[in-house]
Amino acid sequence: MTDLSTPAPPASAAPEPGGVQRTFLEVDGMTCAACVGRVERKLAKVDGVRAVVNLATRTATVEHPAEVTVRQLTDTVEAAGYSATPKSPNPRRAILAEERERRDVLRRLIVSLVLFVPAADLSIVLATIPSTRFTGWQWVLLALSLPVVTWGAWPLHKRALQGARHGAATMDTLVSVGITAATAWSVVTVLTPGRQRPDPHGFWNAVLQSDPIYLEVAMGVTVFVLAGRYFEASARAKAASALRELATRGAREVSVLVRDGSELRIPVGELREEQLFVVRPGETIATDGTVESGSAFIDNSAMTGESRPVPAGPGNRVVGGTVCQDGRLTVRATAVGEDTTFAAMLRLVEDAQATKARMQRLADRVSAVFVPCVFAIATLTFVGWLIGSGSIDHAVKAAIAVLVIACPCALGLATPVAFMVASGRGAQLGVYVRGHRALEATETVDTVVFDKTGTVTTGVLSVAVVSVAPGFTEDAVLRLAGAVENASEHAVARAVVARAGADLPAVEDFRAVPGLGASGVVGGATVRVGSPRFVAPGALGGAVAAAAESGRTVAVVEVDGAVAAVLEVADTIKPDAAAAIARLHAAGIRTVLLTGDNAAAAAKVAALVGIDDVRADVLPDGKVAAVRELQASGRKVAMVGDGVNDGPALAAADLGLAMGTGTDVAQSAADVVLMREELSAVPDALGLARATLKTIKTNLVWAFGYNVAAIPVAVAGLLNPLVGAAAMAFSSFFVVWNSLRLRKFGTRP
User: Fold this and answer.
1) Where are the bilayer-spanning segments (predicted)?
2) Which member of 211, 299, 364, 451 is catalytic?
3) What is the spatial distance between Cα 292 and Cα 299, in angstroms, rounded to a whole number?
């Protein structure tokens, strides 16, 4: 692993409006949802502090007033019985810490397993064939077990003691008490002559009923819990691997051009905006910028998931974290550090994981009271069996089984692990979901509304025909129109500028009217450029009608109140648009094309891609009205767009999806950002979100159902604690394994 050149969110981000800061803390010692709830409650008691804790990533996202220091936050977490440190912008430290923890668990697991196997075999043989019992056999079992239940289980005991000092009861408390109780009762049995059963009771009875000596049970519980922890840690690393791969793709150094034309190699963190830097074949582009000279094919897979390289040349925008495959580029930096697209996408993932789904909030509330309830049930079980059977051995066994089987670790992992895996897979596919709200909204979406230009079409427009009014020349009109449109972000504007050429005159008093056009003063002349609704075509109405019949977009140019020209702009439908629409229809989702373009152009595009419902000549506020009209009819609407005029509609929709190639306004208003240009990103995003929700529900049903079904069995005395420990470990393993299946989403066999 290499260091992250474009850092993840720092320990304390820049103050937000109102003096609120956001701090990320790495919290160690959490093992279940009860731990999460305790940390959140402790932090919430600090004035003005709001916190969300993620068990899977072991990260606390804390919003707090500027006067609350990071030291106060870490002290608060430590007062809850856990350790906390500011999250490092360098992921390598967290990776190494997790690796050390995983190696420690593995070491304890191996030693415990080596001692447990002969102890378990010996216990079964001695229980089923009493004649094999030799003098001092109890002491042999005790010698084999003590290293396991002390050193092997020490992390569990340590965390249980830390929690006890702060009045907290967690999963580790349940396990530690179970191991301690089994060991203590076994020691009492060993030291009390005549308490061992001399009668044979067969193999299955030995397994199901157990002897009064529970040393193999204490060892088995330790082994199974350690095994569960190890596989859980390994699975967490796999779940986060996609995000770490994304995070570590940034460049570490960059070659900047100095005044004399030579190159100087500096750390990428020292790069500043407007500096020129050089990218050679095979190098990672250090930051966002504009190509000044050179040409090359760029591998954008780190950001978009697309394996197909795209060409880049002078004037083209490039994104940090992508790779120059061939050629040499000179790039002018337009954004550095936290302002880059790369950093913004990482923040999206971090922010998404800092939110909680409705289902996870329910699970957390249950877990907050679950552990104390388990202790109460175990106590009542012990008392009930002691009174009912008169056998303290049966009472101890049943109580230990309740403690071990009821550990709620699977409940705490059910949602965060699934979302962590989905976030990583989404990043690989170029799909960035802002949080659980967006995730939950996809479940009910039944209608997807598409903007046309830049969404269903490529948005790379070109001026195909120029019809000039008498008294004007094509070159003069294009220069005036290009000067005005040079200040606009719209795709039609870029096409006009491209046709007008370089060295355009300056524009004054520029004004843009979203969805209609733009105006300005160029060389003393008042110029207006826009749709026929913005500028009446007058005598050139025939050219407008002809363009509409051919499905082309029209821009009318007016100079000092006189119609000067009609520009016919052609667009290209995205190659995968029809297939993407077909996938949505196959999933039972209705599609709508919503555009400010003319009806003929919209109808032609809709017919080619398979969209039946077309709404054309729609202004930006009309797009919002159209979305709300669909919602009023009972539809759950997802809106897909990329322009400034799509922002209000994206915000109004139940789910907003912004194309990553679009404007900042569109991306900030959306719930999901699609970094791929292909329209197939839309069904991929909806499909991944729905698969994630399905996985979370399966996890929660298993976690809840497992405890609901297992506790009564343990209370009834029908469950050997050893079997309970194995079942508890399997429960966590199942939840993690089920979540890891999301890594395969979208892959082809």
Assistant:
1) 109-130, 136-154, 174-193, 213-231, 366-387, 399-422, 700-716, 722-740
2) 451
3) 19
Active site includes 684?
no
Cβ-proximal residues to 268 (8 Å cutoff; 6+ apart), any chain = 5, 6, 250, 251, 252, 253, 254, 286, 287
For 454-514, strand residue ranges (E) read 462-468, 508-513
Q: 114 exposed, middle or buried (CB, 10 Å; 0-12, 13-18, 19+)? A: middle
Neighbouring residues of 417: CB distance < 8 A, sequence distance ≥ 6: 56, 235, 236, 239, 699, 735, 736, 739
Q: Which residues contact 225 (CB under 8 A, 6 or more apart)?
A: 153, 156, 175, 725, 728, 729
- Sign (positive/negative) of CA torsion 218, 219, 225, 229? positive
Tokens (6 digits) for 448? 């997807």
pLDDT, tens digit, 9 for 90 and up, residues 2-57: 333 333 344 444 444 446 888 888 888 787 667 787 888 889 889 889 888 877 67
Alpha-carbon span 442 to 677, nearest angstrom:
21
Global pTM? 0.60
Tell me the three state secondary structure of residue 28: strand
Q: Which residue has the tokens 């840690």?
A: 233
User: How large is the C-alpha radius of gyration of the chain?
Assistant: 33
Q: What is the pLDDT of residues 60-109, one digit of tens each?
A: 888 899 889 999 999 998 888 888 888 766 555 666 667 788 888 899 99
Bridge partners, residue 528, by sequence:
519, 558
In the structure encoding, which two tokens stand for residue 464, read together? 């195909």
Centroid of chain to Cα 361: 17
Strands of 1-133, DSSP E: 20-28, 50-54, 59-65, 83-86
